[in-house]
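Re: the request from the purification team.
They wanted to know what the chain is likely to look like in 3D before they choose a buffer screen. I agreed to run a prediction and write the result into the notebook, where they can find it.
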Amino acid sequence: MLPQVDDPNVLVDFTTSDDAAVYRQPDGSLLIATLDFFTPIVNNPRDFGAIAAANALSDVYAMGADPLFALNIIGFPKNELPLEVLGEILQGGSDVAREAGIFVLGGHSIDDKEPKYGMVVVGRVADESELMRNSGAQPGDALILTKPLGTGILNTAFKHRARDEQDFPDVIAQMKTLNRDAAVLAKKCHAHAVTDVTGYGLLGHLSEMLDNGEVSAELDFDALPIFDGILELIAAGEVPGGTRRNLAAVEDKVDFGSLSDDQKLLAADAQTSGGLLVSLTENNAELFVREMRKAGHEATSIIGTIRDAGSHLIIFK
């Protein structure tokens, strides 16, 4: 266990389920810091680097921050893979960092049996009023998801060669897409709560959003944006262990109604570089969806509603 933090300038630390740490500076602005890395999920090394970078940046965007710079975290089997592969990974990460308007200022590498790549990302929020957190959803809010679900299942299919990643360019493109547009709109639309949907899946991250026990969420499974062919892959057994663990962790918090076992797994799928989950008023939700789709984020959808606390944190209607 980490020691308890006793510093009035630490606004967010490990004791909450927020997406990044937050530290207040003397001028009142906030520093946002996060770290994320993982093993390859696709075969193309440049795509792997780009996806890992977009995934790391997502936490900063989810907190309402502008990224300032990044540092690389690298594990690489230097005697087993050519250094050109590492160069491609780093180039993919650098490309996405530059797209985000920042530089990679350095980092650290180790010799490792399996490649690993990710980033520390530091961002800034002008003042506390602009900070977005994953708590604060209010009854009557609409819930919005900005990217399709199913990347965990698809990545498992890629690893097992049950599917060829080259046949799913839209999936690769979505994982490489920054959540910047969604974060900017969430601020503009005065979102009450925001988080990104990554390894803990939609149901896990939503349960953290509702964890104060004051509200619950009603979801419409048919409204969930989903990549094509996902339920067929689940039926074929292409389900990562993380997705099954996610479902087990939240099962007692969810009233699944008439959902099938495969649909439950999809709702709990462990995402890589997923979208933002945003809670905001119904009127602002319509504006959010309209502006996101106009900007090319066509999967952005209203997936449910925040209600008063009920028998379960999450209910499928």
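For the purification team: The chain has two domains: 10-130, 142-316.
Please add any questions underneath this entry.
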